[in-house]
Amino acid sequence: MEFIQQNLMWVGLAAVSGGMLLWQLVNGGGGNNVSVHEATLLINRQDALVVDVRETAEWSTGHIQNSRHIALGHLGKHLSEIDKFKEKPIIVVCARGNRSSSACGTLKKAGFQQIYNLTGGVNAWSEAGLPMVKK
Hints:
14% strand; 6 helices; 5 strands; single chain; Oxidized Rhodanese, domain 1; alpha/beta
């Protein structure tokens, strides 16, 4: 009890961050998590669209070939650009998989059917030795 009183700010921060993680699990990012291997199968076999929700500076350092860049903060305003993919698989990526989880929820609410969140994000893709482009 004394520890909690002396470290109230840290305990509060831990409770809030834990609550946010639980909220994502309960309320759902909306997408199914897929591994890098599963994502490549979706891309190659079902012509899945890859949507990268990282910021422009991150995108410029390297991204998955043929991916569509729509920063998370702009996703709601640009849904019409990917509307024709509502029935197709969409793999949402960010750096590590956290922001893309949120984007999956946005897409699900907008009526997209097959939404997948790349586990580990672009970092996992790169670590697996898969190609990245900068153009």
